[in-house]
Amino acid sequence: MRVIICGAGQVGYGIAERLAAEKNDVSIIDTSPDLIQTVRDALDVRGFVGHGAHPDVLEKAGAQQADMIIAVTLYDEVNIVACEVAHALFNVPMKIARIRAQAYLQPHYQDLFSREHLPIDVIISPEIEVGEMVMRRIALPGATDVVRFADDKIAMVAIECLEDCPVINTPLSQLSQLFPDLPATVVGVNRAGRLFIPRSADQLLVGDLTYVVANRDQIRRTLGLFGHEEQEATRIVIAGGGNIGLYVARQIEQRQGRTKIKIIESSRDRAVAAADSLRRTVVLHGSALDQRLLHEADIQEAELMVALTNNDQVNILSSVMAKRLGCKSNLALINNPSFLDITKTVGIDATLNPGSVTISRVLQHVRRGRIRGVHSLHHGAAEVIEAEALETSPLVGVVMRDLDLPDGMRIGAVYRDGVVLKPSGSLRIKAKDRVVIFALEKAVKQVEQMFRVSLEFF
Question: Is a pLDDT exceeding 80 seen at residue 50?
Answer without folding.
Answer: yes
